[in-house]
Structures are given as structure tokens and as C-alpha cells.
Amino acid sequence: MDHGSSVRVTIDDVARAAGVSRQTVSRAMNDKGDISEATRRKVLATIEELDYRPSAFARGMRTQKAGTLALIIPDITNPFFPAVARGAFDAAAARGLGVVVHNTDADPAAEAEASRRIVDDGVAGAIAFFEEVDDGAVTALGRRVPLVVADRHSPDPTVASVRSDFATGTRTAIAHLRDRGHVELGMLDGAVHGKPERRRAFLEALGDDGDRVVTAPATVAGGTAGLRELLARHPGTTAVFAFNDLLAIGAVRALKAAGRRVPGEVAVVGYDDIPMAALVDPPLTTVHTDKYELGRTLVEVLGRRLDGHPAEHRTLAPRLVVRGTS
Amino acid sequence: MDHGSSVRVTIDDVARAAGVSRQTVSRAMNDKGDISEATRRKVLATIEELDYRPSAFARGMRTQKAGTLALIIPDITNPFFPAVARGAFDAAAARGLGVVVHNTDADPAAEAEASRRIVDDGVAGAIAFFEEVDDGAVTALGRRVPLVVADRHSPDPTVASVRSDFATGTRTAIAHLRDRGHVELGMLDGAVHGKPERRRAFLEALGDDGDRVVTAPATVAGGTAGLRELLARHPGTTAVFAFNDLLAIGAVRALKAAGRRVPGEVAVVGYDDIPMAALVDPPLTTVHTDKYELGRTLVEVLGRRLDGHPAEHRTLAPRLVVRGTS
DNA sequence: AAGGTTCCCGTGAACGTTATCGTTAGCTGG
DNA sequence: CCAGCTAACGATAACGTTCACGGGAACCTT
């Protein structure tokens, strides 16, 4: 009921106690110049003694920047994202930044709403997994706040990016399947926009017309349905490459239900290496992307941007993890 | 580079454009009284027209409360929490609130640091999954900011709580196992503090001395190790109840590796019903807790608290989901 | 008709910080 | 010895909002 009843220790209290002006206190804690080493230490000591904490509001009011950054993701429930978020949390905490998460369900309207909130809240910077193919929105947000986009490139040179190299990841998976002797390959593509690399690399490697690619919702249920469709089109299919692990797991389930042995009769390889992948039976062969590292790198790149460096563009290398489905 | 170069539309601009004072504008947007319906509509219209957004900083400066709430969890990577977070995100978004997430790894020092940040950032309220058994810290935080704790009760009457009824959940699971004819039961308890209900209910139902309970880290690896220990102590064990699904999945793996059929020779039931539970082979029988609903309820309770209502204490009922391991 | 409400609305002040500019003392160089 | 510089610090003014007042008009009440 009486929240906030205790009086706040302000910068003036510190100034008074240290026998200096509040401006000097400000200089001491913000590592600005124009202050002698002696007084700075004294000020810092009294700050410690009084347990003074600067008001984030008052500070943000002047600087228009908060000590927090925004993370826009489609769905924290999608097993790909918790690890990404964790990497981002840890790296942000190390920098003394908080992270406010926005779920969008890959809905453009929700993405716009999140962007709106972000500029309103005056966060220090933003990290975004955007679905919206229209670059206008991205550029608009990038103009208002330092921005790093994941798995996507922005035409705006001030928007940094970190992406996983899907093309070579896909090629590695297909090469692996060919090494195992498979010739009739099929693909389960995820029904998501803006991520054509996997499908493109697949078609490129096969010189195919696309009839061997079926698109389905990127879920387990989508995987079982998609696999049936694929088998209906090409009964001789002997190996399946999936857009992500959820689809792959669904495919394996459908295969087992149909009485086909995995990997004896049909091999399956997924993408992402979510935690579940190692625990299903048989454990899933998949292209591993380091999600924690992705999250970490995203805030690292954002941090460098906040420190005044130019926008970087980094690429993370995936690697194949061979388990029991191939 | 030139972030924030565009000039801000302030409340004074709106006031000028609408031909009223800024106080009237404030009244219009905050649904305060003392304003006629006519002028309020006019003000709202000009707000819309000028695309005015109140400064969160300036507002927070006066009210000491931001439009954001904090969510303290041990680990977003633990499959239990993404769904909780999602429920919290959705409910918060519906209320126009942002959510800043703090990962603690159940480390008291990290929990203290998160609490520190929370009061510093002046969030509107906080939701916490605390590990710290010492109630002093919880009460201290609760005194500074409206607080709702999950799966735990606070002695402080101003701290609200939402908990899953672990005791009856556990009893239901054990009754199910007994119905199946099992008599030699064992339990895999998680090595976490502050959650004795499951173990207690288990021991209570058995009238046992605790020798049939082995404690292990609440992970898959902990489950396999714990099960071996359990079998070493009581080779005749025919049914295992686990603290959570991770432990249960680990147990099933160990069982299969040891050549024991599940559920033919040994039955296993987990707790939580994480997404993985339905996908392992055989699919896991488990006590389902509605994690999304938990997250949703947590912010609902917090919201009512913010609206001035007294602290509530709610309990969510779990239910048994029988699948393939029992 | 005088006093009392109620309904609207505006004026000043305050929240706690940082930016800008000014001031002082001490030092340098010619 | 004085102009000019620099280092260290302080005073004032913002940043944009809400709170505590106060006051005028209209509408009752007796």
C-alpha cells in the first residue's frame, strides 16, 4: 500500500554530503572529464555510503535513453528462441542493461506495435527478429533507435545484422545425405516469409523444379502432414531435409506411423538443433546453430553500436550434428 | 547516427493546438475527472492528429512508476518457463505494459541484483519465481514495489501469490500408479530449494522414511543418474514419480539403456508436461500444469493489485495426462 | 437574493538529472 | 608582469509530465 514511502536519496544529498555541487557528482559517476582524481574518489565513496542510485527516469529525461534494450521475437514458445534470449540476457546483464521482450507472432501489426513502444519507451537499442518483408518499417525503426536485425539484411547501412549462414548449412546437410547414398531427396519447407535461403540452397543443389519441396507450418503437426504430402507426390523419397527440427520431428513421427523405418528406409535431417532434437527417438540428425551465441553476439554488436562504432554485419557458421535419423 | 534528431511533440504542443491548458490534456488522456466530454474528445482528436506520445520518462519522473513490469525467472532455457513467459507477455501487452525479464539461475546474488534493478528502474510491478528461501528479501522487495510471487507463499500479506497445487497433483499421480497395480514406488526429487510439496506429498502417501527418494539435479542427465541410484537402492522398484519432466525423461532413457521396458517393467510419471513430454518415445505420462495460464494469471493478479485491490492468493489445479509411460 | 455546491479549467511548482556556460585559480610563455 | 591558457568546479536552465492549488461560472437551495 505504501510503496515508495521511503524518501529517495538524490544527487543533491550526495553533493551535500561530499561537499561538492551536484554537477561534480554527475561527473564522477558518468566518467566525464573536468574532475580531479581526488574528488572523484571522494564522491564515489559517499555515493557508496549513502547507497545512492540515480533515477532512471530523471536520467532518461535528459538523455532520452534508458538503461534497457528491446528484444523483438516472434514467439518465446518456439524452442529456438529461449536459448537466443538467454544469450541476450546474459550479455545485456554484463553490460548493466535490462531487456524488455516483445512477442510478435510474426504478425506485421504486432511488429509495428512493438516498434512503436520501443521508440516511446526510449530504450537504448533494439534487437529484432522481424518477419515483415517490407524494409521500410525496419529502416524507419532503425532511424529512431540503434538497431540490430537477426537473420536478415537491411538496405540501411546504419542497421547492423547478425545472421546464421543458412546456405552453407543447407548444403552441408545435403552433402551428408548424398554421402549416405541417397538420391531421391525431398524437403519440408516452413511456411514463413523472408527465409528463402534453405529452400534456395536445396533447389540449387538438386537442380530441381520445386516439386520435391512441400511447404507446411513450421510445427510438429505441420511436419507430419507435410511428410504425407511429400510421400504422396514422390513415394520413392529416401531422404528428407526439413526447414527446422519441429518439422523434422513431425516427419519422423509420420514415418514411424506409416511403418517406415528411420533411418533404415528413410533418413531425416532437421535444422536448428533445438533441445528436443537430442531427446526424441531416434535422436535427430540436424544442422546445429549456436543460439546462445547468436543472442550474445546480437547484443555485443548492438553494444558496439551504442559505443559509437559503425554498424557491423556478422555471420555465424552452423555445423552438422549427425545423430540417429541419418 | 542522428537518432532522435526529430523534434518531440510535447503535451504543450497538444495544449496549444487544442486551445486548452496542458493540465486539461493530461486529464483527457489519463481518464481523470474534471473535464467535459466535449473538450476531452477535442483533445483526444488533436492528440491523434499530432501523433503525440507522452514521454515515459517524464511521466515516470512524476509518478515513479513506469509502463513496464518485471519478470524474474531462474532460466528461460528451462522448458517450463517459455510458456509462462508467453502467458505473461500476452496479458501484459493487453494491459499496455512491457515486460523486462531477469534471469537469475536461482542464484540468490542474482536475485538480489535483479531486485535492485527493479526498484531502480521504477517498474510498475514485479512477478518473481524466487529460489531464495529467506523471506526477508521477498518482503523487502514487496515493500518497494507491488509484487506477486509464483509457487510460494509470502508471510507478508501485501505480497500476492499464484501457485500450482503440487500436493494434489502429486497425490493424483501416485493414485494413478497404484491403480495400475504398482506397489514399490520411488521418487526422483529435484535438487532445488523451496519446493518440498511434491516430496512431502509423496512421502505422506507412502508413509515412507525417505529412503525411496533420491535427489538429483532437475535435468535429463540428473534423471538418468538419479534413476541408477534409485535402482541400486531398491532393485524391485516398479514405478517412478519424478519432480519434473526433465528428470522423468532422463529416467526413461536410463531405463531403456538398462534394458528395462517402459512401461512394461517400470512405469514413469513426470511433472509439468513440457512440450517435449509428448514427443519422446514413449510419450511421457505426466502431471499437466497450465503454464500459459500461470503466466497470464500472474500478471492478472498483479494488475488487480496495481488497480488498488488487496493482494490475492490463487491456486491453479494441475491434472494428470496419461500417455505411454504408465 | 445570498450563500453553497458542483463542474470545468488554468497556473505554478516540483520530480532528479545532465548540458551549457561561467568562474576561479594556477600555470605558461614572451 | 601580463595576456592567454587549462584544469577543476559551480550556478542556472532545461527535459516533459502530473500534483496541489485556486478560481470562475453555472446551478441549486432556502
Kindly describe this structure.
- 2 copies of one chain form a homodimer.
- Chain A is of the alpha/beta class and 326 residues long.
- Chain A has 3 domains: 11-54, 434 Repressor (Amino-terminal Domain); 68-164 and 291-315, Response regulator (Rossmann fold); 166-288, Rossmann fold.
- The first copy, chain A, is built from 12 helices and 12 strands.
- The first copy, chain A, has helices at residues 11-18, 22-29, 37-50, 56-63, 81-94, 108-121, 135-144, 166-179, 197-206, 220-233, 245-257, 291-306; strands spanning 68-73, 98-103, 125-128, 147-150, 160-164, 185-190, 213-216, 239-242, 267-272, 285-288, 313-316, 319-321.
- Chain A has a 6-stranded parallel β-sheet, with helices on both faces.
- Chain A is elongated.
- At the A-B interface, helix 4, helix 5, strand 2 and helix 6 of A face helix 4, helix 5, strand 2 and helix 6 of B.
- Strand 2 of chain A pairs antiparallel with strand 2 of chain B.
- The first copy, chain A, binds a DNA duplex (30 and 30 nucleotides) through helix 2 and helix 4.
In CATH, the topology of the largest domain in chain A is named: Rossmann fold
- What is the count of DSSP helices of chain A, taking H or I runs of 4+ residues? 12
Radius of gyration of chain A: 25 Å
Query: Given the helix and strand composition of chain A, which structural class is it?
Result: alpha/beta
How many domains is the backbone of chain A divided into? 3
The proportion of residues in beta strands of chain A is 15-25%
What order do the SSEs of chain A take from the amino end to the carboxyl end, as H and E?
HHHHEHEHEHEEHEHEHEHEEHEE
Q: Which regions of chain A are unreliable across 5 or more consecutive residues at pLDDT < 50? A: 1-5
Biggest sheet features of chain A:
6 strands, parallel
Quaternary organisation of the protein chains? homodimer
Please give the order of strands in the largest beta sheet of chain A.
Answer: 2-1-3-4-5-11
Identify the CATH class of the largest domain in chain A.
Answer: Alpha Beta
CATH superfamily of the largest domain in chain A: Response regulator
How many extended strands of chain A? 12
CATH architecture of the largest domain in chain A: 3-Layer(aba) Sandwich
Shape, principal axes of CA atoms of chain A: elongated
Q: What's the N-to-C terminus distance of chain A?
A: 61 Å
How confident is the prediction overall: mean pLDDT of chain A? 92
Query: Which chains share the greatest interface?
Result: A-B, 51 and 52 residues
Helix content of chain A: 40-55%
